[in-house]
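Dear U.,

Please find below the material for section 3 of the report. The protein was modelled together with adenosine-5'-triphosphate; I have listed the sequence and SMILES used, followed by the predicted complex structure.
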Amino acid sequence: MLNVIMTAVQLWLLCVMGIYFYTMLKSQKSTKSSIHRDANGELEKLRRMQKTSLTEPLSEKTRPSSLEEIVGQEDGLKALKAALCGKNPQHVIIYGPPGVGKTAAARTVLKEAVANSVSPFGSHAQFVEMDATTMRFDERGIADPLMGSVHDPIYQGAGAYGPAGIPQPKAGAVTKAHGGILFIDEIGELHPVQMNKLLKVLEDRKVYFESAYYAKNNREIPMYIHEIFQKGMPADFRLVAATTSSPEEIPPALRSRCTEIYFRPLTKKEIMKISENAAIKGGFSISREAVSRLSEYADNGRDAVNIVQTAGSCASLENRTRITLEDVEWVAESTRCTPRAEIKVTKDELIGRVNGLAVYGANMGTVMTIEAEANPCEPSKGAIKITGVVESETIERRGQSLKRESTVKASIENAITVLAEKLHTNTKDYNIHLNFPGGMPVDGPSAGTAILVSLFSAIHHIPVRNDIAFTGEISIFGNVMPVGGVAEKVAAAKEAGAQRVYIPQDNDRSFLHAQGIAVIPVKNIDEIMAAVFKDSLDTAENNHYAVTGEQVLTAESVSGNNVLS
Ligand SMILES: Nc1ncnc2c1ncn2[C@@H]1O[C@H](COP(=O)(O)OP(=O)(O)OP(=O)(O)O)[C@@H](O)[C@H]1O
């Protein structure tokens, strides 16, 4: 009897188990088939989407495909080729304003390098592009498109290795670019943690991973994963980073590992050339007047291509293949484009109005007007009003926040000391207004010489030629000290129509003298005063400017080192 009961129970258990496994199998099958059904549906949808495409945007059609197609930027391209196309390619940072060809140059330089037989870049060298503004990562290292990550078994997606407890390293951009170029746009926006990891990879030329699931003696783990954990994943690439920020905003540790290259703003002529090329590539012809007007509105190459694209669409709507002046004007009007500000110097001789030079953004030079007005007042009771400058600045350094008077204000004070001590001009005897017009707050020490000339001119009523420009820091002993961005400043002075530019002696370089503008290096204010005021003093009535009451300033006194030094 007991046997029968036991057999019945066993049979029942067998049946229950059988039903259980049958149901499991069935549900697995139905899950599989529903996955397949869904996947097939999605695949069809994807195929349909792939078949649908709009026409290629003009911005893509016009993208330069070789360095030769990049308009202007001769110096930048030469430096880029020197850094990347030789035997020992370097890491590079390209600085420059937006839309002037930085990305275009970076994308095409690898082709140029591969063509050179001495280059270590092979024919399969990869160009991997990342944008630091959109790059995201997980601080635990679970997901990191730049560095790569480890898929630990605990996380979904570990696949067959998951149940076996095997961590899987996944390559990031630094490894995908191995043997080629990793291009990071807007490098200034890279998260500091990522920046530090990148610096380490640049140093090691490998990327190392860690995982709590990795054990050296685990024989289940495949050999290649052991090698990656123990020796690192290869990441030997050359970095090309681009930025619209200024060099000071880029971490010094990265800068010191890279060759720094500068792309400049495009000239009107270059923008005209880019517009013409864009029109041709888009299947249009474009009138001369249209190109010329377009160059007044477009700030850079990207703007130019965009205006051509919209103007071309206008022409197409009217079945035309020629872009006219009216098309460009209509685009400018309807998109509220404002003509690009053009600063031009004049041929006048002006009292108190002087051209300084400045750089802003990545490396854009500009002429900066400085104007001074001085009225005699009760001796030693004068006041100076300064407008248009940065009042004070805060410097963040290693967690400390330091506040100081702006450097341009310090320059003004230096100029006042030099006027008193070297040029016998007591600014306290005048009510002075020193203004930096233009709406952009001015800072930096490089306006020192221009400030000094402006104040001297206003106080003594001696006109200054407006077709000259100045850059240089001034010391309280009247020495002219070196400043940054001189090449850009000289280019800006030339663009504005200046005939002469005074630069600090220590900034003098031979290439500056081949820019089509007279570049005059000066060591101290004696040289500047002699050169700038000599003509005016020679021709001035009476040849006589009372400076302090006792001191008389004459053409001779400003042209020789003896009196003013
Ligand atoms: N110097 C140039 N020569 C020819 N085309 C140019 C030049 N500069 C810009 N362009 C045109 O503008 C487009 C955008 O240029 P690109 O992306 O290289 O600019 P960028 O300097 O990298 O700007 P951003 O800093 O905004 O990324 C290019 O695809 C090209 O059509």
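For the text of the report, you could mention the following: Residues 73-149+167-211+221-262 form a domain with the Rossmann fold fold (CATH 3.40.50.300).

Regards,
Y.
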